[in-house]
Amino acid sequence: MTSFQPLGGSSRSGRVLGPALDKIIKNAAWRKHSNLISTCKAALDRLEAVSDSPDHSSPLLGIPPPDADFVLHPLVLAIESAYPKVAETALECSQKLFSHGLLRGDINLPAGADNAPGSSAARLLTSVCSCCGIGDEALELSMLRVLIASVRSPFVLIRDECLAQIIRSCYNVYLGSQSAANQLCAKLVLAQIVVIMFTRVEADSTNVRIRIVSIADMMDLSDRNLNDSSLVHSAQNFINEVMAGSDADPLPSKSNKEGSLLRDSEGEAAANGGGLSKIKEDGLFLFKNLCKLSMKFSTQEDPENPLLMRGKVLSLELLKIGIETAGPLWRANEWFLGTIKQYLCLSLLKNSALSVMSIFQLLCSIFMGLLSKFRSGLKEEVGIFFPMLILRILENILQPSFLQKMTVLNLLEKICQVSQIMVDVFVNYDCDVNSPNIFERVVNGLLKTALGVPPGSATSLSPAQDSTLRIESVKCLNCIIKSMSVWMDQQLRLCDFAPESHENEHSSENLTSLNGEEGSVTDHDLHLDANHEPSDAASLEQCRAYKLEFQKGVSLFNKKPSKGIDFLIKIKKIGASPEEVASFLKNASGLNPSMIGDYLGEREDFSLKVMHAYVDSINFEGMNFGEAIRFFLKGFRLPGEAQKIDRIMEKFAERYCKCSPSSFTSADTAYVLAYSVIMLNTDAHNNMVKDKMSKAEFIRNNRGIDDGKDLPEEYLGSLYDQIVKSEIKISADFSAPQNKQTNSINKLLGFDNIFNLVNWKQSEEKALGASDHLIKHIQEQFKAKSGKSESMFYTVMDTAILRFMMEACWAPIMAAFSVTLDQSDDMSATAQCLQGFRYAVHVTSVMHMQTQRDAFVTSVAKFTYLHCAADMKQKNVDAVKAIISIAIEDGNYLQECWEHIFTCLSRFEHLHLLGEGAPPDASFFTAPLTEAEDRAQKATSVKKKGNALQNPAVMAVVRGGSYDSASMGNKVSALVTADQMTNFISNLNLLDQIGTFELNHIFAHSQRLNGDAIVAFVRALCKVSMTELQSPTDPRVFSLTKIVEIAHYNMNRIRLVWSCIWNVLSEFFVSVGLSENLSVAIFVMDSLRQLAMKFLEREELANYNFQNEFLKPFVVIMQKSNSSEIRELIVRCVSQMVLSRVNHVKSGWKSVFLVFTTAAADERKSIVLLAFETMEKIVRDYFPYITETETTAFTDCVKCLIAFTNSRFNSDASLNAIAFLRFCAVKLAEGGLVYYDNISEGHLGNGDDGNLTEKYDLAYFWLPLLEGLSKLTSDPRPTIRKGALEVLFDILNDHGHLFTDTFWINILKFVIYPIFSNTRNITVGQVLSVHDSLFPDDDSAHSETDTLAAKCLIDLFVKFFDVLQLYLGNVVGIVTNFVSSPYKQYANAGMAALLHLTAHLGSKLSEEEWKDILVPLKMSAASMLPVFSSIIRVMQDIEIPDRSHSDEEQYSDHEYINEDEEEANMETASYAIVRMKNHISVQLQIVQVVKKLYEVHRKSFSTAHVSILLDILTSIASHSNEVSSETTTQQKLQKACSLLEIPDPPVVHFENESYQNLLKFLQTILTEDPALSDELKIESLAVLVCQKIFKIYLNCAGGQPTDCKTSNAVPNVHGILRLGTAKKEELAARTSLLVLALQVLGGLRQDSFRRNLRIVFPSMVSLVSCEHSSNEVLDELHDIFHSSIGPLLMNI
User: Fold this and answer.
1) Contact status, residue 887 vs residue 901, Cβ threshold 8 Å
2) pLDDT tens across 26-51, in order?
3) DSSP class per residue in 1577-1623
4) How far, rounded to the nearest angstrom, does the alpha carbon of residue 1057 sit from its chain's CA centroid?
């Protein structure tokens, strides 16, 4: 050894051991510790002799194994010496060996030889652990340092018993040390050991980062040491120091390499063995031992052992820390999960019976850890412990332990902090038909706690405790709904931004749920089939629905068993066979045992079959009779009716004998014995029975029952003992729900129906600890479930599951919050309620649960108390804040609930204004106040309380009203006291907490709402505004101003959304604009104007229609409003908007023109003139803008101008409007309109067949303009009528060359023909008939216009004949319609037009076209002939008086004739005379037209044309003769004319002119066109006409034509009479006609005259003999006889 070699040698271990051994030598007593000293010296010599060894199997680094045992032995001796100075040095050295990684390998207490591997290190640890019994406080701390260093060392594995020894030593220090500081340190060391071990287990490695435990992790409130802050601080420093020192490693590189080799070998061992690694085995070993330590109970001799209780509490604390430290491995590894089920759950179960608060708190904490991390693997266990630990306490309302219940409530708060837990609980239990409804029971339990102890009930709680529990339960409910809200938000964000999670994967180590629980396993049984996997929510919806229906069936069964079974079979929850029903009765939970017994005992066939199947399903094989009947009656309670019992026992006896055939001789024996056993059971265990049955009596009662023989007395005695000792009873008592609690506040708040959902079942149990019966029952459940396959645990990420959760909990939650808000003034409680309401609204809104959402929002709105401000408190102000928060945070989902929110905001703003002393809105809607009234009103400011009581608005608000009332202050009769006013003023000060900024933020925030939400927002705001404005006493404009604001805010939204918004706003503005309150309507219209001006600032593209929709409210109100002020305001508003935004108006022109069109027909002149003034400026200055984008705007403009032409106030305006129509036509002709390919085709009205077939050719613009002018031609005002007609035809004449042939068809049909529709209905291609009754009265003004119209029509037709040639017949039809008029003016106009037409087109007309003219003329002439017949009929029915007016005085009274009748007759006669004269005049005009046509166009006429003309003249001539022949009618007419002193109708003139023109026409043909004459046989016709004329003349002259065959007859007696004056005048008038006829005859050729002489000769002879008025007749006769007849006679 060199001089510079350190003490202990050159090895690394020696450098640690050397100084320690040297110190031990120095501190040891030479005599007492001589062996120790020598051993230390020998060890030092050995250390100096060795160097670092590469042998890794050595427990001491760098020291060979034999030398390692030798050099460690002195440390063991030093510690065992119990001498503090020596032992402390040895302990310090041991700590360094462990801390620096010098001691390595597995350390265990070997069962065999001492030289086993690691035995030296084991002995060292054993000696270290023995220090706890020395009692020295310093040594205890040193021991704890060594132990924690040994466990912490990454190079050492403390195994099995050695680990147990370390734990026991720490326990002993904690339980037995005299130092409180050491106790705390031991406790922290134990906790740190647990953390180290479980952390290593999770990583399966010793080299892991270890967290340092904190004293705060300890929960034992009964530990007094925790109350000393200095002790707590020193203990925490101790563990921090120890853990910091243990991390040191002087030789990191080499030690790490070696450590890694150690870990690799461990991994290989685990892989080769196929089981757990050593680290995991150690973790399981520690966990099992802690569980066993926690289950140590005191003995009967020492039932209250405090040390045992402290140890139990410590064990539970360590288990809690272990569970908190455990990671995913514990959930994934079956060994660990099985250990938790086998040991920890048993510990929880046994310790739940203890009535120690600290233990219960630890149990709750451990259960919290299990629930947070292991619920997926402990589904059945959680389902058992949740009711036992939590629900059992939570549902105990009357006699709970205050601290215990507070612990449960705090536990529920912690559970809710992990949002996934509550969802998983609901999914796996409330949706599982075989599991309890944990979530629902928790919510209902919290509700009952929140409502407090029912009135009149005895309770162990003080009022303060009850109040605290109520507040905490409300807090828990808030946490539940908050956790649901947080979970929903998390999942929705995951759905948006993360890929779908695949929950079907079973790799639990790769899955991590939101709550930190990894490896949640999903259930594949939820999938309906292999090919279709529905979403979690859809599958769970089925499960939940199944459970609800199943529970409904169970509930129905418990009331009426047969109905319940029928219901369950009907909904297919159970099968219809008796076997399936029996299986249901045996296995279903929740069935009332009494009802099962009643159903099994029924005598109906199906019930009997079910009972038989039920009994047959039980196997009694191997059971004695007592066991069998006990097992049989465990599932139900026997009914009380003897017959039912008889049927059940009969079947039981039969089944028992079948399973045990050797038991009895027959089934009768079993039957009788079963009855006897039942009676014994009742007798022995019924307290009402005083004289109990003895064994001898029981044996005596059963003699001879075995087929006449006795059963063995031993057998019966044993059976008697069994029954008396243990009562036969059902396995689990069924407790029917008690009556539901009623509370006086229920009806007050309207929660009767909500509370009906809550089961007020109270359990009378101990204040602390579960009963032995309950624990035993749970143990049976564990055993029953252990044999079954593990049920699957579901983890759902679909937010749709929240709908089912909310359906289960919303009513209790709202009831709890509402009652608490109403009854409590505690700020924390009300804050929790309002926060809960906010979360509930959020969840129900996002999940689209409309009913629930509305209920929550309505509740909060009602609790604002804004409708009853005098009763407001701070909690009500907080409710207002909550409403505002809801509006801002959940606005996208509120929909109809916005109405409640806006109602609250409106009322708040009203109160705010009153508080500021501002005048009410109603003051703006009334007449201005005088100066004195204004001062009086200002004096009513609320803040100046002097005259506050005199303000009606304030008094109305103070009186208040119901929430649903339209306005506050409906209780008019109630008086306002000074106290009420004072409260009101103070409450207004409370409202100052809420500024107007928050309110305005809601409306400014509307820009962020989605499309559906903003529409609902606007709709609700309009509804509230409507309510405000329609208030009869206090109309307000708050919401109206907000409508304008939000319209401005949202005007830049996309067109689809804005269109939906405006549809709502439009209806609102229309409705309010038509309000009877003029001031309100004016205010609304001004608001609409503001919006319109803002909107018109935006550009609109072509062919959109939104501007028109936006301005439509102006149109509707203009059309419907009865207020002239509103109509004038609208005209002014629209005028201002258009003139200021004319370059932006596109589709809005339609609404603008509709407004002005309506204004044109207004009753007020100022409105009409104002509108026309604007129209004039628009057309004159801004015409290009009208059709810039919208083609329909021009037609609307035309319609508007036409409407102004109908103005009855100013003819100048009407004429100007017509002039503007001409201006529009000029613009059209100039092509000043924009072309669009998508212009709609067709015409806007007037028949289905009027659609235009061609594409755009300006027809779309021209037709409305021309049609409008066409309609104006029938205006009653002559100037307008004439002006429109002139403008119309001027336009057609000037611009007709622009029109296509097809368009001309439409012009004729829709423009021109309607002008003449007063006489006929014209269709294209139709030749029309005439009816005189359709003609208007003979009005000169109308006739003038119609005459002008006919002339203009012919002028137009002539000008555009090349285009309109095909429609000649239609035009002629119109003209001939005039010709056929019975009125002279129309007939003259028609004939003039016809002549004008032929004069200009005669040379261009074809033969067919002439025919188209002449035929209608002929028909018109013929159509007029029946007029005379109507005159005859009229005159036949009247009598004309024989006297004149001057003769009336000569008649006496008795000869007086009815003057009214005579007057009527004379009026009729006068009408007939006028009609007769007109008729004659028209007929003669037709004759002149025919004559003129022939004269002018003779060369153009064919034979057919001449024939038509001849027919016309012939028919008229014949008609004239007919008229002349009606002497009776003529006499009446002449008599009437005489009385009326008017000229007679020119009948003779008519006849003379008709025949004269006919005869001249024939004469012309005869002389000028012999060929035509021969073709038409004109000669014969002329002779006949002459003969007719002769007869007429002779008839007038009183002579008759002489017949050659009767020339010898007696002459006519009339021939000798002389003619009167009238006849002579008539004869003179007919002389010219006769002369013409004689001249025509005389002009015939000789041969022709000879042929026709026979016809006319008699008449000529008569003419010779009759009287004549002129010698001219005789001269003509002389010439004929001399020149024509004489030569003929000479030739004979």
Assistant:
1) yes
2) 888 777 778 888 888 888 888 887 77
3) THHHHHHHHHHHHHHHHHHHHT--PPPGGGTTSPPPGGGGSPP-HHH
4) 15
- Helix axis angle, 438-451 to 463-497, nearest 10°: 140
Token pair for residue 1383? Answer: 């009125």
State phi, psi for 276 to the nearest 5 degrees. -85, 150
d(CA 1671, CA 1669): 7
How many of the other CB atoms lie within 10 Å of CB of 881? 15
Q: Residue range 756-762: average pLDDT?
A: 35
- Rounded-to-integer distance, Cα 750 and Cα 760, Å: 18
Alpha carbons 741 and 761: distance in angstroms, whole number? 9
* Residue 389 CA to its chain's centroid (Å): 44
SS (H, E, C) 217-237: HCCCCCCHHHHCHHHHHHHHH
Q: Among positive and negative, which fits the CA dihedral 530, 531, 533, 538?
A: negative
For 1154, other C-beta atoms within 10 Å of its C-beta total 23
- The mean predicted confidence, pLDDT, of the chain is 76
Is the four-CA dihedral 440, 445, 451, 457 of positive or negative sign?
A: positive
pLDDT of 226 strictly over 70: no
Q: Evaluate the CA torsion angle 145, 149, 152, 158 in order and state its sign.
A: negative
* Residue 280 host element (H or E): helix 278-294
Computed on alpha carbons and rounded to an integer, the radius of gyration of the chain in Å comes to 61
What pLDDT digit, counting tens, does each position of 1079-1130 carry?
888 888 888 888 888 777 776 666 566 677 778 888 888 888 888 888 888 8
Query: How far is the C-alpha of 1537 from the C-alpha of 1520, rounded, in Å?
Result: 20
Model confidence at 962, pLDDT cuts 50, 70, 90, reads: low
Q: How many CA atoms lie within 13 A of 1544 on its CB side?
A: 16
Residues in the chain: 1692
pTM over 0.70: no
Q: Mind giving me the DSSP string for 1524-1589?
A: HH-HHHHHHHHHHHHHHT-PPP-HHHHHHHHHHHHHHHHHHHHHH-HHHHHHHTHHHHHHHHHHHH
Nearest residue to 1194 (alpha-carbon basis) of 1264, 1137, 1129? 1264
pLDDT tens for each residue of 405-431: 898 999 999 998 888 888 888 888 888
The residue whose two tokens read 């790769």 is 510
Distance CA 253, CA 237 (A): 30
What residues contact 1305, with CB distance under 8 A and at least 6 apart?
Answer: 1324
Give the count of alpha carbons within 13 A of 1009, CB side only: 30
Q: What is the pLDDT of residues 529-575, one digit of tens each?
A: 333 333 455 666 667 777 777 778 888 888 888 888 888 888 877 88
**What is the three-state SS of 732-796?**
CCCCCCCCCCCCHHHHHHCCHHHHCCCCCCCCCCCCCCCCHHHHHHHHHHHHHHHCCCCCCCCCC
Packing angle of the helix pair 667-685, 642-659 (nearest 10 deg): 120
Tally of CB atoms within 10 A around 56: 12
Nearest C-alpha neighbor of 557 from the set 615, 636, 643: 636
The residues assigned a catalytic role are 641
DSSP character at residue 114: T
> Which residue reads 């120790």 in tokens?
36
**Maximal CA-CA distance, the chain:** 216
Q: Is residue 961 classed as helix, strand or coil in its secondary structure?
A: coil
H or E stretch at 107: strand 105-107
DSSP state at residue 105: E
Structural tokens at position 486: 């947080």
Closest Cα to residue 1390, out of 1402, 1407, 1373? 1373
Contact present, 416 and 480 (Cβ < 8 Å): yes
